[in-house]
Design goal:
The complex is a heterotetramer, with two copies of chain A (315 residues) and two copies of chain C (353 residues). With 315 residues, chain A is of the alpha/beta class. Chain A has a six-stranded parallel β-sheet, with helices on both faces. Chain A is globular and about 55 Å long. The two termini of chain A are 35 Å apart. Chain C is an alpha/beta fold and 353 residues long. Chain C has two domains: 190 residues, Thiamin diphosphate (ThDP)-binding fold, Pyr/PP domains (Rossmann fold, 3-Layer(aba) Sandwich); 130 residues, Rossmann fold, CATH 3.40.50. Chain C contains eleven helices and twelve strands. In chain C, β8, α7 and β9 form a beta-alpha-beta unit. In chain C, α7 packs across α11. The longest helix of chain C is centred in the N-terminal third of the chain and has 15 residues. Classes of the chains: A alpha/beta (315), C alpha/beta (353). The interface between C and D is large, with 48 and 48 residues. Bound molecules: thiamine diphosphate (2 copies) and magnesium ion (2 copies). The site of one magnesium ion has 6 residues of chain A, from β5.
Amino acid sequence: MLRSRLLEERLITMYKQGDGYFWIGGPGEEAFNVPLGLLADKGTGVDHDFLHLHYRSSGTLLALGADPVDSLRQMKNVASDPYSRGRNFAGHYSARKWNVVPVTSPIEIQYSIAIGTARAQRAGTGAKGISIVQGGDAGTAEGDFATSLVWSSRKGAELPLLLIVTNNRYGISTPYAGQHGYDQISERGKAFGMPTAVVDGNDVEASWAALTKALHYVRTEKKPYLLEAMVSRLRGHSSASGANLAKEEVDCLERFQKTLEDRKILTRSAMDQLRDEVTTELAEASKRIRGEAPPTPESIHDYVFADKNYVGGEV
Amino acid sequence: MLRSRLLEERLITMYKQGDGYFWIGGPGEEAFNVPLGLLADKGTGVDHDFLHLHYRSSGTLLALGADPVDSLRQMKNVASDPYSRGRNFAGHYSARKWNVVPVTSPIEIQYSIAIGTARAQRAGTGAKGISIVQGGDAGTAEGDFATSLVWSSRKGAELPLLLIVTNNRYGISTPYAGQHGYDQISERGKAFGMPTAVVDGNDVEASWAALTKALHYVRTEKKPYLLEAMVSRLRGHSSASGANLAKEEVDCLERFQKTLEDRKILTRSAMDQLRDEVTTELAEASKRIRGEAPPTPESIHDYVFADKNYVGGEV
Amino acid sequence: MATMIQAIRMALHVGESRLGVTDIFGEDVGAPLGGVFTGTQGLETTWNTPLDERGIVGTAIGLALAGRKPVAEIQFCDYAFNTIDLLKVAGNTYWSTGGDWNVPLVMMTPVGAGIRGSIYHSHSFDAQATRIPGWKIVMPSTPLDAYGLLLSAIQDPNPVMFLMPKALLRVKSKPGEDIPGAPDDDKRLAQMIDAPLGDRSAWKPEWPALEEMYIPIGKAKVAREGTGVTVLTYGRNVPMALAAAEELVAEGVDTEVVDLRSLHPYDWEAITASVRKTNRVLCVNEDTEITNFGEHLIRRISEELFYELHAPPKLLAGAHIPGIGLADNLEMASVPQMSTIKSAIAELAQHEP
Amino acid sequence: MATMIQAIRMALHVGESRLGVTDIFGEDVGAPLGGVFTGTQGLETTWNTPLDERGIVGTAIGLALAGRKPVAEIQFCDYAFNTIDLLKVAGNTYWSTGGDWNVPLVMMTPVGAGIRGSIYHSHSFDAQATRIPGWKIVMPSTPLDAYGLLLSAIQDPNPVMFLMPKALLRVKSKPGEDIPGAPDDDKRLAQMIDAPLGDRSAWKPEWPALEEMYIPIGKAKVAREGTGVTVLTYGRNVPMALAAAEELVAEGVDTEVVDLRSLHPYDWEAITASVRKTNRVLCVNEDTEITNFGEHLIRRISEELFYELHAPPKLLAGAHIPGIGLADNLEMASVPQMSTIKSAIAELAQHEP
Ligand SMILES: Cc1ncc(C[n+]2csc(CCOP(=O)(O)OP(=O)(O)O)c2C)c(N)n1
Ligand SMILES: Cc1ncc(C[n+]2csc(CCOP(=O)(O)OP(=O)(O)O)c2C)c(N)n1
Ligand SMILES: [Mg+2]
Ligand SMILES: [Mg+2]
């Protein structure tokens, strides 16, 4: 969690120092997203979980084992960015080795795509993995969210899909209130006969428990489950809105650190020391990658067409 | 109801005799669609009801006062077809004088368009009319149905919209069972806090009552209501599936005629006489319009751009 | 002598029984109907989706990413216009991820006019499709090409769009163009693979011993050799152009008809060779004529082969109007017909520089 | 000296206060933000929609049919590709109903590259838009044109698409091109109509006494007269072409720059006049180059003005790749730049027939 937070802070600093054009990310969602990365069954192919994530998912990626320096590379849009080779914005992860399906900028389409990976894993296929899809609250107004509910819950053809909505009560500048007809988005799952839950995503233990329960259900029943996590948006929407600290929001990291301190699991100074270490490490890394090569102009023509079926297992 | 049924039968005969290329329509929905036309507040502009109908809505149009011969004209695609000037398929009505918004071939988009007319009539505008939208069961899988639920139920910004689903338990060849996660589509409205109801659309009295109740709610509360009518598909999907009689389906007209007879409101022979009269009338009309002129080739370029704002009141 | 729709069905059978196709799906694609044009009758891996094109395209992408081999159908291309964003994603995923995820899927959809389909069963999709980078796009004009292109589409590791010219689906193959392994006798073939009318719950097709045959994506076919005028076309307009060419022989016009077959990537070599030979070029297709794929071809020809042209290049395409009307007069006036193709060729042939 | 985004805001103010505009809406269009580019700050009839582009377009159509005058925004044109079917309906309703219902709405959306917007904030929409019959499509290159075109769009009884060149939104008008009625002093104007940073709940704009000024839809502007080469362009590429033309004066090349302003209907007369004068033509736009609107212009020019051309016509457009990459090198290599426009003009000028 701390590492993920510090990564986002470094990315924001890079943006502010002109080492990147745009920042978007997940400070405020770590207490939920880190457990998600730890609990997912990581690997390649239908026997592991497919992750269709949001653009606030650094916490999940780091928990899966991603190198934070690679996030800096994407921010700096250098050729060595392993997620998009300098093509895409920060936070737009892709990692086939862990079934992390590319994060898409168009809101909510991951919910329509996730029903496809889930279909490949449905009961009877013998596939051991499930699919997990995540997005924001405002985005649930798109038809793709409904597509996901409809397709995953068809009687007799249910899909092993965990639908997650991370509700930070905003879509850019537009507040949750006034845009929805229900109190909680999870209510929309009920009509489709799927179990639903709301969890305080600022509480890491509650998140862990809610995810464990939901994942267990989807894995064993091979049916959909809708989980809504109430989270904070600690740095506003993105760099476009300044990326400054939103003081009115609960900080899950502070809360977790306090718990650790109260329960005497870690001392404040140990935590501060770790913070300093990681901060320095990331600051140095961000300087180092300044020297890495940008993509060449001609490289725009690379990777238009594949000549092998990599996802089909060709190597 | 009888007139509407006989109109559809005539249209099918025309198709079978080569007097038209395609038939689609509403035999089996009359007990619901005729009351809808009678109960709607017809007229032009926001002070009357906007009707966003399905392609099975002849019953509603005739109840509003449409001339059945005009339907034959559309079937025969002659230039005098007032709904589309020989351009569109049978059943694709449009009547600005009665706020009948053009029936669209793409399934379900009427639900996204209806929120616009309803918005023009929402509480506070002073508009007296409401909007009514209708479509089939299978079509509710499209995101536009969800769009309609989301937009019409926003707290504090509710729309006066009656959402109707005519459930004939088929989408072309695909049965209802196996495509949905709930028993009744109306359940989907509950999450959005709107009242819902299911009615036997083969029962004309029940339909009348359900519509009256739903319309009253939408008119007085200026909020959405979801009504699902269980109807029959008496002639299959369209001419593409043969348009033959589906004997296993309940025939609402027969049922209504039996009631009328049982209650001694009309005698069977009086009804048979009416049937014969209308049948002859329509048969003659269909012959007569064979002589009407087809649209000219050059007319394809007409009505690409308007030079007046007719919907805005210019004449 | 199979029809194009039978050829498609046979290719899908080969696909699912030998080439790893795992899912053939779309609205009414599975039993009992087997597709509104019968293209998927009797297959093993078909299933009926909800009525939701966005879900269909999304599912196809997801299945592909999960290592399966989906063939998704959009019932009519007229109903694919709410999915352009998803089609773009299918086309950009390999590029956006710098080669991390390829997206091997096939989308098939009927296109074009010619069946009095009115406004929403007459759309073309070639112009829209060629605007979506990352897709390969093919469109056959004969049953054999349909068979060979569909097999190539199935084997391709990229998203491939297979456009089915609606008006040709029931046209039979010409002698010598039989599907390899299928019986030549059409009655026999129909008995083997066409579902019976009425109850078909107990029916099973008897598949012929089909041979694989691949038509490479990106290769055009000179459907008729000639020296006077080049016609660049595809799909429904190929037989029209061929018929026009035959009629023009009497007028001393020798027409070359190039059937592109692949719209992207297209066969620039074949186009160049033909234009260099005839020095006169007509592009024909049914899509609306502003921002039309034929205009791309003409632009490139004008740029690169300007001094080869002995007459202004010409496009014959659909009228730029909001729809194709139902009445005979309307449909005929909206898209190229044999007669209008014929006069356009004749005019080009007669043009004096 | 207003910026283009201020000019748009002022036009919308005139629209809602005098021309009957009833609803200005879209994602983040209302308070507190007033649009991601500030285009709708301080207006009276704005409101924030759910995050659902299909609902936005559907609502716009419905409001129009109900006799209201909506101006709908799609936050970035990159996110309009899931609504093409609805845009087609807006464009075909008047035609499909044989004149029964017209659909008077305005849709505005930011387009194009130039802000390092990466794959999903760099799309162009001109090629896609010109493929949808029944729409009028405009795209300004100056604040004054933006003002005058938007007022015309609002008054039109048809659907009109107003494409906002993202990279020019903050560029100020040139002397002599002031918005009629707005103060020339930009500080003063900003004080009057730009929302303050921070809490703006109590803020109200002070609107200048604006005069109506209409730029007719369908009329191009000769942005620079010249006799050597014609450049047909619009939006972001206009100032680039003008700068290139100035630099080329030193090389003895006299460039005419035609700013189309309206893409549909477009000003064929102005195009013809310019091509007849210079006999050399370059089309420039940022959209991907296969099935591109510039190809339509070149096709028509090749067909109708073939013998006027003293050099092959040329298109300079976006590379035909799945997206525009973020890194400087990638964006610059993907769409025309001043330097590439300049060399293309020079090459055309030097071409010996
Ligand atoms: C289809 C689409 N429309 C609009 C946008 C622009 N946009 C980017 S983020 C965003 C708000 C998303 O809000 P929410 O779904 O609540 O997610 P959050 O950012 O709050 O996590 C919008 C409108 C987009 N990316 N995609
Ligand atoms: C967007 C779209 N997709 C597909 C079709 C083809 N189609 C026409 S009717 C139909 C079935 C509709 O079923 P339902 O919504 O239940 O209405 P019903 O015909 O049963 O009244 C389909 C798939 C279409 N018209 N529009
Ligand atoms: Mg949010
Ligand atoms: Mg139905």
